[in-house]
Design goal:
The complex is a heterodimer. By secondary structure, chain A is an all-beta fold. Helix content of chain A is 0%, strand content 49%. The mean pLDDT of chain A is 93. Chain B is mainly β. Chain B has no helices and eleven strands. Classes of the chains: A mainly beta, B mainly beta. Chains A and B meet through strand 4, strand 5, strand 9 and strand 10 of A and strand 3, strand 4 and strand 10 of B.
């Protein structure tokens, strides 16, 4: 089945540690995205990538880093510079469109808790 | 980039039709309107898309007036399993901005 796989589903981190969240898709989608969701809130865009080896900052990129070395993979690193990293992280992908609707397919999410 | 505006929450009862309206005051000419559904601790799921007039699929209908400044998601005969948060994200090219969504509670 095609889809997006995020891992781990749950992750605990001590303050001061970097952690990397994995996101893999087999949908042959060009664009990939990382969103953060806090309890009871909407989604906020962290980073997005439209093609391999290229990515752009979203609304809340500070304290995060990404890479896009392969079309299928878009890992997110939450660095120690992120002051409040406890949140639900969602990865998504879509076909790159110059026109028409941008329909995102989301993964199941990774819940990060800082102890 | 201003986000879309939609009600924070709505209550309904099983079997009723639910209409959720979203304001798209800054929609661009080339932007399509999309709606997503999210259950707790899951990623959002795409429901429906449209550009203007009315679109219907097996899940919902989407009504978009001629000026495209708003859209209305219509869920026919809701059930308890339709309890979720519904989003109408603002589109800017290939980047979607999600607001807080509308929390729909369906009661028995």
């Amino acid at each position: 089945d095609g889809g997006i796989t995020q891992s781990p589903k749950y992750l605990f981190r001590k303050e001061g540690q970097n952690v990397t969240l994995s996101c893999e898709q087999n949908l042959n989608h060009d664009a990939m995205y990382w969103y953060r969701q806090d309890p009871g809130q909407g989604l906020r865009l962290i980073y997005y990538s439209q093609i391999v080896n290229d990515f752009q900052k979203g609304d809340i990129a500070e304290g995060y880093s990404v890479s896009r070395e392969k079309k299928e993979s878009f890992p997110l690193t939450v660095t120690s510079a992120q002051k409040n990293p406890t949140a639900f992280y969602l990865c998504a992908s879509s076909i790159f469109r110059s026109s028409g609707a941008n329909v995102l397919t989301f993964g199941a999410g990774s819940r990060l808790t800082v102890l | 980039l201003a986000k879309t505006t939609q009600p924070i929450s709505m209550d309904s009862y099983e079997g009723q039709e639910v209409n959720i309206t979203c304001s798209h005051n800054n929609i661009a000419t080339n932007d399509y309107i999309t709606w997503y559904q999210q259950f707790p601790s899951q990623g959002p799921r795409f429901i429906i898309q449209g550009y203007k007039t009315k679109v219907t699929n097996e899940v919902a209908s989407l009504f978009i007036p001629a000026d495209r400044k708003s859209s209305t998601l219509s869920l026919p005969r809701v059930s308890l399993s339709d309890t979720a948060v519904y989003y109408c994200p603002e589109g800017a090219g290939n980047m979607l901005t999600f607001g807080g969504g509308t929390r729909l509670m369906v009661k028995p």
